[in-house]
Each structure stands twice: as structure tokens, then as C-alpha cells.
Specification:
The complex is a heterodimer of chains A (482) and B (243).
Chain A lengths: L2 H15 L1 H44 L6 H7 L1 E4 L13 H4 L2 E4 L11 H4 L11 H17 L1 H9 L1 H7 L4 H32 L5 H28 L3 H30 L5 H15 L8 H14 L11 H37 L5 H13 L3 H29 L2 H6 L4 H6 L5 H4 L11 H36 L2
Antiparallel strand pairs in A: 1-2
Helix pairs in contact in A: 1-9, 2-6, 2-9, 3-16, 6-9, 6-10, 6-11, 7-10, 7-11, 9-10, 9-20, 10-11, 10-15, 10-20, 11-14, 12-14, 14-16, 15-20
Chain B lengths: L10 E10 L2 E11 L4 E6 L5 H8 L7 E6 L8 H5 L2 E4 L11 H11 L6 H11 L15 H15 L3 E5 L7 H16 L3 E6 L2 H7 L2 E6 L2 E7 L6 H13 L1
Parallel strand pairs in B: 3-7, 3-8, 5-6, 6-7
Antiparallel strand pairs in B: 1-2, 1-4, 8-9
Helix pairs in contact in B: 3-5, 4-5, 5-6, 6-7
Chain lengths: 482, 243
Amino acid sequence: MSPVLHIAANELRLMARARVAQLAIALVVILSAVAALTAISQGRESQEIRSRFQAQADREFDGQPARHPHRMVHYGHFVFRPLPALAGFDPGVDAFTGSTLFLEGHRQNSANFGDVRQSSLLVRFGQLTPAFVIQALGPLVLIFLGFGAIARERDSGLLRLHFTQGVRAGQVVLGKAAALSVVAGLILAPALGALAWLTLVGGAAPVAALTLAAGYAAYLLVWVLATTSISALAPSSRTALASLVAAWALSAILAPRLATDIALLAAPQPTRLETDIAIQRDLKEIGDSHNPDDPYFNAFRASVLKTYGVARVEDLPVNYRGLIAMEGERLTSSLFERYAERQFADQRRQSGLALALGLVSPTLAVRSLSMAASGTDLEGHRRFLRQAEAYRYAIVQRLNRLQVERLTFSDDSKRNSDPEAGRRVRIDPGAWRQTPDFIYRPASTTEALGAATPGLLLLGGWLALAGGLAWAASRRLERAGA
Amino acid sequence: MPDLTAAEPAIDVRDLCVDRGGAPVLRNLRLSVNAGEVYALLGGNGAGKSTTLAVLMGLLRPAGGSVEVMGLDPATQADAVRRRIAYLPETVALYETLSAYENIAYFLGLSGDRPSRAEMDAALDAAGLQAGARTRRTGGFSKGMRQKVAIAMALLREVPVLLLDEPTTGLDPVAASDFNALVGGLRERGAAVLMVTHDLLGAADCADRIGFLAGGGIVEEVRADDGLDVLALHRRFGEAAAG
């Protein structure tokens, strides 16, 4: 057996005999396993709930009685974002952004019913998911088990005994790192099991699951190498422990919080109230379809009359009130679209800044990769908002078109004063059933991989840095002669 | 292993100079130890005794002079030198959750040796560790018991050179006497033993030669053949240490 494997095997034997190490490993493996099982179970349950409610919302929309199409525009429709197959592994921003949208005419509502609004505030401090266990607790256990691997043996004289047996410093560092990697493997194993299950049974993309597995393995390896290197470089085991715990607190606890605050400060977004006021102001500028002197809608009327070659709206072969509704919806939707894209651009700048801070924290790098590969990053949420808005616009305009084509202008104008006209403007409920259902299209594997690439590259950089640190630690240990 | 004629010393140090932290520690140190000889290097705190051992193990590079262990230069052939020496620090460090057998198997395994239980028992018998202690975890071992485990390792490795760093410090007189007898046994087996120590009595008990280290070099060397008078040695040691 090579000295590296011999040292690694002995290190594992020492851990196996140390009660504290046994306890720490057992605890984190149990936590990881519980998180994995919870991920699978919650994912399935949450998906089932969302599917059930989506079906119910579709049924209720389809089952509406005969009505005026514009009443249906205001009746609205609920859409639910289907849970990505890997969301149980890393819920990402899903708990904060919400997954339900109420779609109606003339309005673009925000998503509701995120877990943080429904559950206790504790959810804000980290759910027990495989991602959380590996990102935050995994490194802590590695530090706890590895900080003294070399420092303590140097303090006791065991390290010199190794050197006098002809062992090189690099072999000691590699051997200790190899043993700690086995612990990292144990921490990772339940999560890998969950990924396999979510892929084979839950229908997750194998490439995304493999990206997650590779990313988390690289992340834990960074901590393995850093822990072993600091243990070799620090003047004592106490200093090694203090340095590593400080690095962990900075990377896994402080940096993710700071990254959000820094991104918000560097790329501030207008508040909801400011946006609402700005939209109302812009809406007023567009024009008022109910105002007979409104210049925009007067021009619109003139254009319609010219197109159909008639002098009065009453002579049009279609319902002018429906045309007004369609034009109004087109205008407000394009305005909402503009504001939404501006907000998305701000969010993208914030996400970019937060990702750039992954240069100072491997946890930020793996978090970005993890959310992107799981489909639970902000981009996934924006994808849902965009598709839901496109769907909202399509069904509202479809209802408006029913008003244009199936209702007469005369009936529509008298519907409140003439009961017969009011009866005639009600459309048969079969029309609602013909409204297509909302089908969410998740990111393709290529898109998910593209989104995960920056995080993967950052982790690669961290791995190279940690490898360089291990090499430097070996050199210094060799020179110092223990 | 290089051929070494009986006339050639197993350890040969010539005009060794070592600086640590910019300050000179050893200056033109000369000493040699032959196979089957025990050399005791005496000196006060900071005289450079442990530094000498570190150079012999290739853990420190000399600033000048030449050093050979079994004809090899520790500065450039450290691995080869380390395969030929056994080192016993002042406090022998062992893995406390492993037994004596497991410690021996582990440390010998680092250089590819896989001694059988019978071979380990023979070495531990020679080192004097009682049979009942061999399967116990070494966490409860006394300093003397730890030294016996380390000596057993050296015997199993059949190394020609032993470096002992303050081996009898903290041992009770009986244990110190046992240890000195053990060192005598190593000499009988043909090993070259370099022992750095404060223990004048122990040195007089088992060493063939005693060198007084002061001011970075050997200021006086006496031979057991000359008939060692411990009180006279004690006086001269004090004078040498005072510089």
C-alpha cells in the first residue's frame, strides 16, 4: 500500500475510534439522509398539491356559466408554477418568490404563496434540504474533523515520526486529505441517493443531476483541501481551528447574507409602491378609452372606421367595444412588459453581482450553481412570470376577441339597460372550455447547464486555489521539517 | 544500502555549521559514531543537541561543513538516510487510540514493511514491553513503555543507526537503568547510537564516548576506556556549559 493510502486508512481508523468524530459524522449523515428523504417526500407532495389546485382552477374557469366575455376577463384565472424535479434538493428562491399567479385583465399581478408567507419565519433561516446540509453543515463537520489532522500531530511529535520513516510532507497532506474526502463522500452520499431518485423516478434531467453532484463534490473537496492545508500551515491546532471556523463563518454564513445586501445596494430597484405609481402615471398618459375627447382613442376610432370604410362605430361589422378592450389590453400589457423587463434587468444585475462575490466565497459559487441546475434560481422564476404573462395576454385577448366577433355593438352598449340585450351578450359556456390550459415550459437542459456554468467555473477556480494551497502547505512542511 | 567498511563511521560530522533564525547554533562541529558504539552528546539547553539530530535526519540544511550517515548525505539523500535510522524523541509520540501492535504495524507500514505478529512479539520481548500491554491502547502508556515500543520499531526495521533525543528525561531510576541496558543491547547488535542528553549518569552508564557540546562545537570528548569518574565529568560538564 502506498504511504498516502496507508496514512489515509490510519486516519479513518483514528476517526472511527474517536467518539466525538463518530458522533459528528453520524449526525451530519443522518441530517443529510433526513434532508434527502424530506426533499423527495416534500417535492412529491408539493407537486401533487400544485397539480391538484391547477386542475381545480382550470375546472372552475371552464365551468363558469354563460357570461359576458369581459366578466370572464375580470373573473380571471389562477396558474401554478409546476415544481422543478430538483426543487426538493435545492428550493432556491422558490420559497420567497411564490409560485401562484392570479391572471386577470388590465393587471399584472405578482406571484403569491411562497413558503415564507405561509410558514413560520424559521424558513428564512434555512430549510433542511440536502443543499443546505452540504453547503452549510458539511464544511463545518470537515473542519471539526480535520483541523488537527496535521497540526495536532506536529504538536505531539507524531509528524516528525512520519518523516523519519521516509514519508514526504506531500504524502502526509495527501493522505490526510484523502481520509477527509471519504468523510465528505459520506456527507454527500444521501444527497447523491436523492439525486438518483429524483432523476430515475422524479424525471429530473440526468445532466442537471450530474452537474449538481459534480458541483457539490468539488465544493466539499475545496473544504477538504483548505482544512488539510490550514492544518499544515497554522502554527498550532488551535490557530488552525480558529482560522478555519472564521473562514467557514465568512463563506457559509456571512457572505450569502452580505452578497444580497451588497447586490441590493449596488443595483437598487424601485419599491413596489414606486413602480405602481409610475405605472399609473404612464397609464394616464396612454389615454382613457372611456373619454370621448381622448386624443389617442379618437385616433384609434378614426383608424378603425377608415379600415372598415364606415362613418360610425355602430356601422362596423364587429363590436367596437371589444376592439377598444383589445387595444386597451395591448397598450397596458406592453407597458407592464416594459416595467417587468426593467425589473428583470435589475434583478439580473443583482444576481450577477451576487455571483461575482463567489470569488470570495465558495459557498456563493456552489449556491449559484445549485439553484441554476435545480431550476430554482431567479431566472426560473422569471421564466414562469414571462410564460404566465404571455398566457394571461393570450386568454384575455381571446375573450376580448369573443366580445368583438360574437357580440354586437348595439347589444353591448345596451346590456345594462335592456334585459334582452343583457341576455344576448352572454356567451355559451362552451367557449370557456375551449380556452387552452396553462402549460409551463421549464428551461431546457442546455439552458440549465448554461446558467450553472458560471458557478461551475468559479468552483473550478476555488478547487485550483485549494490545490495550490495544499501544494504550498506541503512545501512549507517539508522545509520546516515538522 | 551502501557498503561501509568497519573503519568508516556510521555517523560522520565534519565542521558542521547551522544557523537558525539568523543566529549561529552549530559552529564547526565534528563528531563521529561507529557501528556498535554509543556516543552521548551532552550539552546545556540551546547548545544545539537537537539541532544536530535534525541535521542528521535531513530535516535541517547545514550552512556549512559535511554530514554523512551510512555514507549518505542527509541534505540531499534524506529519504535514503531516513530508511537507515530510527529516531526516538524525548517523548515518544504514539497514536493513543491504537495498541502497541497497531502503532508498530502502522509506522513500519509507511516504509512498506509488514511485520508478522511473531516478529513484533520478538522485538517487543527484546525491548522489554510486557505481553499484557501490547494489545492495550497506548494512551495509558508511561514514557518508558512508549520508548520500548519505539525501540521495538527500531529493532524490527533493523536500522544501523539510532538517534535518541533526551531518552531518559523524566524516567525513574529503575526505568532509566532498564533503558540504558536496552541501549547496551542495541550496541551488541552492531547499531551506531547517538544519544543527546542532559543525563550525565546515564551517559556514563552506557556510552562508549561522551562529547561536551558548547559554543556550537565539541569542547571536550572522553572515552569510557579512560575510566569515567562521574563527579569529575560533572565538574567538566559544568565548566563546558558555562563556556
